[in-house]
Design brief:
Helix content is 57%, strand content 0%. It is mostly helical. The longest helix has 22 residues. The termini are far apart.
Length: 186
């Protein structure tokens, strides 16, 4: 017969193993959020996080990376764009490092903040930037700004959102508002 304490100990060990093993077996090559249509890996997600951080860096307020705006960008590209636009977005994201190497001699992630901002500025030129990279930059900027402005932090601390306009005060004295002068001479 098995001792009751041994049985409970074995059961706890079995349950702990069942909880831990799938976590270790799962590969860390995919993005941190589930995307149904956008084929992106963990390194591309990390690079996008650095790019949005260069666009809206941390100052006295949290930056885009701090607010996980890169995840918003990925979700918007996944949910709101067709396969062709998604493919161009991924191709442009993959071209960021080669563009950085060409213009600064190092990869985007190894550039400092000033160099990153300069690179993002150069990517805005349609004449000197590959079309996929230019399209990526345009989409990334639009969605990063949208995601940052609509983040919970910004909506509650920087731009407090009012669901309902303030109430109308019918007793506000009209004498406080300047009245236009009316000419009686005609």
């Amino acid at each position: 017969m098995m001792n009751r304490r041994v049985a409970i100990k074995n059961l706890v060990m079995l349950m702990t193993g069942a909880a831990i093993i799938p976590h270790h077996l799962r590969s860390n090559t995919g993005p941190s959020i589930r995307l149904s249509d956008l084929p992106i890996n963990a390194s591309q997600e990390a690079q996008l996080a650095e790019i949005v951080d260069a666009l809206i860096p941390t100052t006295d307020t949290p930056g885009a990376k701090d607010l996980n705006v890169h995840l918003f960008v990925l979700m918007m590209i996944n949910d709101c764009y067709d396969e062709a636009d998604q493919a161009v977005f991924i191709q442009g994201l993959d071209q960021v490092d080669s563009f950085a190497l060409k213009h600064s001699g190092k990869s985007f992630t190894h550039c400092d903040q000033t160099e990153r901002v300069e690179l993002l500025g150069k990517m805005k030129s349609k004449a000197t930037t590959p079309i996929e990279l230019w399209s990526f930059n345009r989409l990334m900027r639009l969605r990063t700004i949208e995601g940052y402005r609509e983040s919970e932090y910004v909506m509650t601390h920087i731009l407090p959102h009012q669901m309902i306009p303030p109430s109308y005060d019918g007793y506000y004295p009209a004498s406080n508002t300047p009245q236009p002068e009316v000419s009686t001479h005609g």
